[in-house]
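During the second half of the funding period, the structural biology subgroup turned its attention to how the target accommodates small molecules. The most pressing case was pyridoxal-5'-phosphate, which had performed well in the primary screen but for which no bound structure existed. We therefore specified the complex as follows and requested a full 3D prediction, including the ligand pose.
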Amino acid sequence: MLPEPVLLRAQAELLDWHGRGMSVMEMSHRSDDFGAVAAKAERDLRTLLAIPDFYRVLFLQGGALAQNAAVPLNLLREGGVADYIDTGHWAQKSIAEARRYGTVNVAGSAADGGYTSVPVPASWRRSPSASYLHITSNETIGGVEWFDLPDTGSTPLVADASSHLLSRPLDVARFGVIYAGAQKNIGPAGLTLVIVRDDLLGHAQRTCPSVLDYTVQAQAGSMYNTPPTFGIYLAGLTFEWLLGQGGLAAIERANVAKASALYGEIDRSGFYRNPVARSDRSRMNVPFFLRDPRLDAAFLAGANERGLMQLKGHRAAGGMRASIYNAMPQAGVTALIDWMREFERTHG
Ligand SMILES: *Cc1c(COP(=O)(O)O)cnc(C)c1O
């Protein structure tokens, strides 16, 4: 979900942005007005994440899956190898895509434990000369989140942060590249954020499509081709909203409170179950299971009746999953907990 004040503001400005008599959707991306919208969005994002000056911020299209190709196409040296950590569904997508463009070494994997934790770095087998090491910093389906970043030395750390970017402060300087589809925690589908360290520009493979080439897009201010203008505008409104909430430290406190209330309820009686190691439990995506999966349909139907939507687990995982992104208020989590208790009383 998106913050209601953001949607209301977009609604109020839909037909007439700042007295211009038109929507942001109708503006040329080359216009001064849109340029100001994009520049403010970038400024506010830099403020929120304290992005150092030696990183470029790119507003692109194609989603995180396009970035799964863009990362090797931009960073994987000729004849080189890239290290990947396999933490589940989305990591595997990244790995499969990277294999199309070069040699991939799966340096660490959580497969042994059924993808219920972040594999400990001591168990990894890294390539000595890897062009980069890729992690999926929040596994959206498995509900596994990285809280301790690995120390990769001089090897650039790359993260698919699609489902938790801006949920808490992040030390950007630890990364070579961070990318995220906006649609989980930031704005509408269609916008992809890329944060890339300057020294990683200029090494793209010859066959890298220009629209995915970080150097081309950085030099063009993300306007090598038409950027997703309305998505940038809405993301900008979300950035403003986050700053108004007190920034990422404040939203992290709210997210911790929501997640611990929900996990507390899941762990309380054994009627519900979450298999993820406690230290690696995602604050954004909380999968949970009933002992008897035949009750899932009744749980979900009752939830829908109470306005608790989109709780069905991913088809690859089954069960339930509560995605409690930034815009989900504590009251939404409380309503879910109330329903979980009622359901346990009547079906337990
Ligand atoms: C949702 C999601 C994706 C999907 O990427 P899109 O191309 O934006 O659809 C990729 N990675 C993660 C971690 C996700 O949560």
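Two results from this model are relevant to the next phase. The longest helix spans residues 247-269. The mean pLDDT is 97.
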